Amino acid sequence: MSGFKFLIFLITRMKPAHPCQIHGFSVTPALTFYGLAVKIMVKQISVKGGSIMPKTGRNIYRRKDGRWEGRYPKGFADNGKTVYGYVYARTFTDVKNRLVAALREPPKPKRAAVCLAEVTEQWLLAVSPKVKPSTLARYDTVAKVHILPVLGKAYVGRLGSSEISAFTKGKLQRGRADGSGGLAPKTVRDILSVLKGIIDFAVRERVIENPVAITYPKQERKPMRVLSRAEQRVLRKALLDGMTVHRAGILLCLYTGLRVGEVCGLRWDDFSPSLDRVSVRRTLQRVSGEGGAGKTRIILDSPKSPASIRDIPVPKTIVPILAGFRRGGDAYFLSTSEHPRTEPRTMQNHFKRVLKAAGIPDANFHCLRHTFSTLCIEAEVDVKSLSEILGHANVTVTLNQYVHSTFEQKREGMSKLERYLGL
Question: How far apart are CA 309 and CA 415, in angstroms?
Fold first, then answer.
């Protein structure tokens, strides 16, 4: 057996043993010898007259379809077996050149079996400088409350569609942390999005070669809660009858579309001197503690997106109400003598108490934003201006998510049809 053939014989039968650590992953000593063998193979193929087509036909051969195929060892699988790569061309010279180029690429080291928990930890570290603190806290909570207790010990390279499907089914049927039932499809979709981010990171870091396919559960879009004209009148009267700074904040959101975190993050110096314009520059949020356990914490962060940093005109009818609560400089808009600022949860509770006292069916604070957008469409405010007031990146988001036709609009539409048909 020639020296060259003997090297190939050894490469294809070497078992990766005694792994050492390189960048946190195991690499076998065989790769050192592998590199030497590759250099010799490249030299053999490159030299004119080299043994390119041995009698055994293991390197380059002509296929039945007339094309040329070259085969080369490119690394090791988890079980220690050699993984081969293939190159194809229409001529012998082209396939030889492609084979030489492929052999000169550094071989992929064999990765030790890495569990999902380890990859998740590295992923969180990698994304932490790129996302907002609130987003990082959400990722951390989702991973440590929902993903790792089920899949944390699984080897990431062995996660397949069946394992992901079983995980998804389990979350839909019994995914609540308190064991009281399943999670909503929207929540499960959010969990799977985090899992996909972890797996994609593993692919980029070459922990695994191919990502596993993830099938998301179907999500039925629930109708957004929009206050009717009658409910708006009752709410406005209830707010004006017992005006406080928190009720002024509710009224401001109803007529500007501010998010609850944005109104809680406002300071008085964010308003113009005449109070007819407000600048959104920050948001106040309560986020979960590390891993979803322990106490939550309040953070002051940048708005949801760059488009959310915006200036909003304040309706003239609200300006005198705001003036009655004006405080100095950098004081928070929703501050009182007892509390220097108001957090979103407290603001939600204020809103629900007002609804209950006014006899209005329950709704969350965000319905004020939906109601404002619908009011603007009814008033024929152009969609581009409305999109900028709401802080959306484009008008498509405004139209698809926040513009809702009321029953009154539908009735008016049917009346127009009747008049057109002469009925």
Answer: 41
